[in-house]
Write a structure and sequence with these properties.
Order of helices and strands: HHHHHHHHHHHHHHHHH
Oligomer: single chain
Largest sheet: none
Strand content: under 5%
Number of helices: 17
Distance between the termini: 29 Å
Length: 467
């Protein structure tokens, strides 16, 4: 049953009961069964709806479901208990879909996505489109940085595994990343030499004219991606850019390498814009927005599973000399695997890969420090401050092992204990007086960085990030 499946998918209790007997011939039961079949089709649409209450699709679905509810209310039960129960169950199914539709559109995370999208629209309008209409061509680095900050904030919006929220977040991210790519391409173009003079070649004037139209198309593309265009469509803009490619291809630029390179740059820029014009149906492919099904994420998760196995074996050992295997070589190989994972410019995949890299590096660092402590041979002439730093490092090694094995939340008591103990080690390092000894200064600085990295890693493990 569509409603049962949807409710279980989104963690909602199923409000309906058993389906009516399909073999029943009573007209009222037959009508209720027909309503349920129609609700099944609507249920799939409700389950994947990722818009807002102001959207046309929301109003259509709400209207259709309300009509179904009225149809159920109009069914005559003739005071028969079995008909009354059947009508009640059918009404509960329709009401469950209405609630689910409203929850999808009004979820706090959905509203947060819309707020960030609105912030991005204002930023692009003020920083790109308005200056372009006024004749300005340059884009500052501040805009590029602001767009990157919005991308990062979008990746941090929690979806709780809900498909509509993942879909909404993905669609917002892909459009903002596309705008970011177009803007960065334009800032890079600002550093290129000016177009060639018309006197260079007969075809240059034509190429310069195409460049002007491409520059206009870039602004139109940005407006389309951000939902700030009233007239044009992606299909129309694609046709316009394709026509420019045909014009450039028809030009005779033989015998002049500079003009050929100029035309090549313009062609590459057009292709760079065209690749962003396939975003109309971007949210329809589940593999794109539900990253649990993404091949890159699966590769990353495969590496993480292997790291967890190696970490468990490392933590079972009492010291580096007891290791019966050489995990460091394999861990470095896993770093190479992560480096080869394609992110496809998806910020969520980039963040997932970054976190996996930090997990591998944390285990390698733990092994390195354990080996260094095992091989350490203090001498009588060792500076007291240097010896004090090594004592703190020995304590940090034990704490890092606990952090690596920690699997809880920030509200847990163990988290607060670990955080307090790590802070105490930082204070202990702060109290170490190098007394002018350069080696002690360097050692203390490295130990402080090590302790801070452990704290950051503990925070990363408990920040409830999701892709």
């Amino acid at each position: 049953m569509a409603v049962r499946w949807l409710c279980s998918l989104f963690g909602k209790p199923f409000d309906g009961g058993k389906r009516m007997d399909p073999g029943s011939q009573h007209p009222s039961l037959a009508r209720l069964q027909e309503v349920q079949r129609e609700c099944q089709a609507l249920g799939q649409q409700v389950g994947s709806f990722s818009g807002l209450q102001s959207d046309r699709e929301y109003r259509r679905l709400e209207r259709e479901l309300t009509r179904q509810l009225l149809e159920v209310d109009a069914v005559e039960t003739e005071c028969r208990p079995e008909l009354q129960q059947a009508r009640k169950r059918a009404a509960q199914e329709v009401e469950a879909l209405l609630r689910l539709l409203e929850e999808n559109a009004t979820h706090p995370s959905r509203l947060a996505i819309e707020e960030l999208s609105g912030e991005a629209q204002r930023l692009v309008e003020e920083g790109v489109l308005a200056p372009q209409r006024a004749g300005a061509v340059e884009i500052g680095d501040e805009l590029v940085d602001a767009l990157q900050e919005l991308v990062l904030r979008l990746t941090q919006v929690k979806t709780g595994g809900r498909v509509p929220l993942r879909k909404a977040r993905y669609r917002a991210l892909t459009r903002l990343c596309a705008v970011q790519d177009v803007v960065e391409g334009r800032t890079q173009q600002q550093a290129l030499p000016l177009p060639l003079s018309d006197d260079t070649h007969a075809a240059v004037q034509h190429i310069n004219g195409v460049m002007v139209r491409v520059s206009q198309a870039r602004g139109e593309l940005i407006a389309l991606l951000m939902g700030l265009s009233d007239g044009d469509s992606c299909a129309h803009l694609s046709r316009v850019l394709t026509e420019q490619l045909v014009e450039l291809d028809a030009l005779d630029v033989s015998g002049n390498a500079a003009v050929r390179n100029y035309r090549k740059q313009v062609v590459e820029e057009i292709h760079g814009l065209l690749k962003h014009l396939d975003l109309e149906g971007e949210g329809d492919d589940t593999r794109r927005y539900d990253l649990a099904q993404n091949d890159s994420i699966r590769q990353i998760e495969g590496v993480r599973r292997r790291v967890s196995q190696l970490l468990w074996e490392v933590l079972q050992q009492s010291g580096a000399c007891d290791l019966g295997f050489t995990p460091k070589t394999e861990l470095q190989g896993l770093l190479t695997q992560l480096d080869e994972v394609s992110t496809a410019r998806n910020p969520c995949i980039r963040e997932a890969r970054r976190r996996a890299v930090l997990e591998v590096q944390a285990v390698i660092t733990h092994l390195d420090l354990r080996e260094a402590l095992r091989r350490r041979q203090p001498c009588a002439e060792e500076h007291p401050s240097h010896r004090a730093v090594w004592q703190v490092l020995a304590s940090l090694l034990e704490l890092q092992a606990q952090v690596l094995g920690f699997d809880g939340k920030r509200a847990d008591k163990n988290y607060m204990i670990l955080e307090e103990l790590l802070t105490k080690q930082l204070l202990a390092l702060d109290a170490v007086d190098p007394q002018g000894d350069e080696m002690s200064k360097v050692a203390r600085k490295q130990a402080v960085k090590f302790a801070q990295n452990i704290l950051s890693y503990l925070d990363m493990k408990t920040d409830e990030w999701e892709y």
